[in-house]
Amino acid sequence: MLRSIIDFFRREAGLSILDLTTDICSSSMYYFYIRGEKNLTTKKVQALKEFFGSDQLTEEEIAQFNQEILSLIDEFLGYRYTLERFNNEVQYLLDYRKQAMLEEKLVINYLILITYHAYYNHDFTLAHKYFDLFESLMPYADDMQQIHIYSLGIMLKAYDKKEMLKVLKELDFLIQHAKDTHFNGHFYRIMGDAYYALRKEKKINQSYQQSLDIFQKQNNFVGMVRVLNALARVKLDNIENTQDIDELLDNYKKATQLQDGYAIFGSITNIIIAYSHLKEVDLIKTYFQSLIACIIQHSIRIIDESSLVYIGVVLLINDLTESLETLEKITQGMQLVGSDTIMAKFFRAARLPDMNERIKFFEKFIYEDNFRYCNFGICQTIFSLIDSYYRDTHHYKKQAMIKDKFITILKEYFC
Question: Do 377 and 298 share a structural domain?
């Protein structure tokens, strides 16, 4: 069970196999052990663990450690801990990383905890490193652990489209048969987000509604507002007048009362997008300032890239380049946007002298190979930006070419 963990620490320390195995076992024996083709004696495995400073814990110590891990996961995913408090509580457990990861009875729960921690602190490289270790540990995971692992994979976009659909189906089965149901609101919301990215309309509403029903039964108001924001996002394309925004404003009010930064951010994002549909530029500016204040005040660390891209489109089509520059400074200053992300491309486009140049920039981007790996929400948003521009400027031949390209993308997603 610990084969991959031992080799993870070897590679992390930059050690050769010989550096690790001298006086413990032969290099070839270690090689076959890591590949799962041979076993080492308990004594030799313990020697490898001790090489990295891992002591043997008593059953009482293991039980106490495990309870602390599960309690932290419970408090954070139940929206009872802010990210700041979660980080403070997790910090001392991080000092025992090798000890916990080299203990068979702790390793899976501990990895789940620190993968969540890395993800919500925007360290996606580390989160993916930890997540990759689950591949060899999955056969040893119980149902609840598998639910967490699949959910983390969805959040980290670790699956291609075909695999994602299989994972979502398996996750739904596990959730329905789980003995412990108090996380289900969170898990169904994650599933709703995934189906939204895949544009599976029926499944989007079904997952979000299941999440909302659970949060309502639990009187979990933070969870309810986050799901209501997600449901509102699904309806945004059909907004026709300012009366339709009342529900969005109500969500914003609830989120503000709860002082939940992520719920506030989601609420404001929806309002900005809605006012963009209604061409209310002054109100876009007003709520954009509220969005920036929210990011700073609540130290927002995780922002779904499709939300940022949608905001970027709104600012570009309304020629609010100064606002886009402000967004760039804030998000890059807080390390919310990497240099190779789609949002980074938006920031580069904003520096181009006019809208025609910006549209050409994105038109070139949609023909790049890596564009196919964007989630569907991002694809649709960028295509809508280009399509609207060519329609409004009466370049109908160009518009037709863009529609053909979009149909090709649709086939990749849905066929």
Answer: no
Q: What angle do CA 268, 273, 278 make, to 5 degrees?
A: 120
Same domain? For 244 and 323 the reply is yes
Phi/psi for 389 (5° steps) reads -65, -50
**How wide is the angle at C-alpha 131 spanned by C-alphas 130 and 136, nearest 5°?**
100
Are 377 and 196 in contact by the 8 Å Cβ rule? The answer is: yes
CB-CB contact of 137 with 111 (8 Å): yes
pTM of the shown model: 0.76
Considering the domain boundaries, does residue 195 fall inside one? no
Give the domain range for residue 404.
352-415
pLDDT tens per residue, range 54-113: 888 889 999 999 999 999 999 888 878 877 888 899 998 888 899 899 999 999 999 999
Domain co-membership, 285 together with 371: no
Torsion of CA 388, 389, 395, 396, to 10 degrees: -10
Residue 197 is assigned to a structural domain of this protein: no
Helix axes 342-350, 305-317, angle to 10 degrees: 20
Tokens of 106: 């702790």
